[in-house]
Amino acid sequence: MSSSQPYPLPAKTPLYCALEGKALLSTPTFNKGSAFTATERTTFALEGLLPSTIQTLDQQVQRAYGQYRACDSDIAKNAFLTSMKEQNEVLYYALLARNVKEMLPIVYTPTEGEAIGNYSRMFRRPDGCFLSVLEKGKVEGLLAGWGGEDEVDYIVVSDGEEILGIGDQGVGGIGISIAKLVLMTLCGGVCMLRTLPVILDCGTNNPDLLNDELYLGLRQPRVRGREYDDFVDSFVQAVRKLFPKATLHFEDFGLGNARRLLEKYRPEMACFNDDIQGTAVVTMATIIAAAWVAKVEVLDLRVLVYGAGTAGTGIADQFRDVVIEGGKSKVEAVKQIWLVDKQGLLLHSHSPTLTPAQMAYARADSDFVSVNTRDLTCIVRAVKPHVLIGTSTHPNAFAESTVKEMSTHVPRPIILPLSNPTRLHEARPSDVLAWTDGKALVATGSPFPPVTLGKTGKTYSIAECNNAIAFPGIGLGTVLSRADRISDKMLLAAIRRLAEHAPALKDPDAPLLPDVADVREVSKDVASAVIRCAVREGLARVAGIPKEEEEEGERELKMWVEMQMWEPEYRPLRKAGPEESSRAAKGELGVVRRA
């Protein structure tokens, strides 16, 4: 690759820092602990503040892993890792990177859900930006304290209303914003110094929180209507003004707000909703791989989605778009999709209770006159789906009768119980495989151990349909290309590239998705596909992206991406004066400039 190729986001250069002494040791983005070099200890007034032995990052990781293993529960491990992140971020990410498969369930689903549920009781140190609906006039000023327009690349915002299958967690929702950004850095290589977690505190309707004297958020019912919309808009417009190059990621908003906010702002800026789009991308990639194993054309699949909320309707929309791209009309594509929610199978007669996203898939009542549309087994008998997807958070909803009924109509049923955390899964993979004699193709929303069938002794690895292998690559590609929108074609490009990584394409008995241990390599490839699509659509806003699309050009593009991916390694520190330093270098992230 040409040495003159520019890298808009250099990730390998020295870091400039104006802090020294105790202030430096208390700043997790710059602190190296026992790994500060002799020169750095002198330059930054650290002599006498550290033990004399200078250690490597590997030695620090070894010690930290021993401390992690000494924790006696998953929530204790989560607390330990949170504490480490608050002390030394490079060490934190290095530890995670060397143990991704083991630690991802601790820092993300399912354990992070428990931590968020106990946020106010476990609180030690604030992280991120807290914005209150009672102070919407201050939003722009408070956001301005987090840096200039070239200092923030990726923002995750939540209002805490629908967190990880556990519902309204109010201000504790800051935890999901932080967790998603951990994955953006760990899996997507976006430098943590250039990310911002945000919580929009609009109150809470969770009675446990409202009655908890230790609850840290606004102790009032959730604000709705015009006041809510104005507050969210004040935030979005401030982001567009202050950080025009950043990508805005909406996370865990309630059913009544998630889709309409995405649709409102998506045409105007680079924004993304992981519950809708990220879940749909990773699920669609799973379906493509499963269809290949089952020897069924994707365009011919019948899909039944159990749980027609934000995730379920997002998956339905994504499947519809793939079928349309394959040459069918929108009307034909919609006919291949059935949604089930609280009302049972969604029908035209349910129109008054349906959201616009659900209404698009409602069926004529006359087509199901003789069907018990509130019984999943009866629905499966009528629909004969190839694919059954669970996004309901109803544990054990996929009963033996349902799964066996499905297997009588299709030789290789594709069954995806995606609800998380684990206790809310619609079915256990071990049961699904046993009920179908190993014929089912299964992926789950949370990690499950391999399943060995007693009849055959055959062992099946269970693919984890985890958004962590999708959204970091999409986000990285959007950040590096500075795309001004995230288009449908960019998402389709991500789906195709992710599906290409499915081990099942080489071995039909292998998992339907790549292992989370390989997520950095997957993210690099997904980002490359997203960037290439953004360039073709004229959405990229950065110069220097390798343009050739043949094999050599693709190699150059992947190198261009890789050179800008942050790695968990200590970079040399350079002393900088306050007048020439960024907010981060001065330890002033979040500080509001006052006249």
Automatic annotation (TrEMBL):
Cofactor(s) annotated in UniProt? Mg(2+); Mn(2+)
Return the annotated region ranges for Disordered. Answer: 572-595
Which terms are listed as keywords in the entry?
Metal-binding, NAD, Oxidoreductase
Q: Which residues form the active site?
A: 108 (proton donor), 180 (proton acceptor)
Q: Which residues bind (S)-malate?
A: 420, 466
Tell me yes or no: is Metal-binding among this UniProt entry's keywords: yes
Show the InterPro entries listed in the entry: Aminoacid_DH-like_N_sf (IPR046346), Malic_enzyme_CS (IPR015884), Malic_N_dom (IPR012301), Malic_N_dom_sf (IPR037062), Malic_NAD-bd (IPR012302), Malic_OxRdtase (IPR001891), NAD(P)-bd_dom_sf (IPR036291)
Report TM segments.
none
Cofactor: how and how many bound: Divalent metal cations. Prefers magnesium or manganese.
Q: Does the keyword Oxidoreductase apply?
A: yes
| Molecular function, one GO term | malate dehydrogenase (decarboxylating) (NAD+) activity
**Record's compositionally biased regions (Basic and acidic residues):** 572-586
- GO annotation (BP), single: malate metabolic process
Binding residue positions for a divalent metal cation: 251-252, 275
The family this protein is said to belong to = Belongs to the malic enzymes family.
Protein name listed in UniProt: Malic enzyme
Lineage, highest ranks first: Eukaryota, Fungi, Dikarya, Ascomycota, Pezizomycotina
